[in-house]
Task: structure prediction
Amino acid sequence: MAEAKTTRKDGLTGWVGEHDAALRSYVSRRLGDRAQVEDVVQDTYLRLLRAGQDTETVRNPRGFLFRIASNLIADTFRRRRSRQEDVGLEGPLAHVLSDEGVASPERRLIGRASLERLEAALADLSPKARACIHLVRFEGLTPRQAAAQLGLTEKAVTRQLERALATLARRVNDDER
Result:
């Protein structure tokens, strides 16, 4: 009986099968947007295939894949920032209102005003509430992870989030009227 020889393609397929779920989770926590997650994961695999013979000496396939993905995520954030600067949006929430240049000038002004109201409402929150929102909503951590990082209980983080989000919604909606 002849032994099956492992080909480069089999090795790369094994990498994908073994690390796909973790890679998708990693990218999703950093980007959030499902379409962008898919794009980054596909580009990661494309770059892996393009690496060719260089992958034969890789000792840590997971680390190699995650490094490729990290570089692509950084590129994504640079593109976002560049587009925001082109439109004139700045601040920690600018990517939320960025529309890739599709909206009309009036829509952009409305978006800027909404962003300013939201940023003002965020600034009025307690530092603890802002930290909870930042870690859970912007960094993609779970309330349990945020609690560990902030030295709080998971319940305290959840309570802070609920109160802060209700306050933000009330402030932004009240200011619109």
User: Anything to note?
Assistant: The chain has two domains: 8-87, 99-176. Helices lie at 8-31, 34-50, 61-87, 94-97, 105-124, 127-138, 143-150, 154-176.
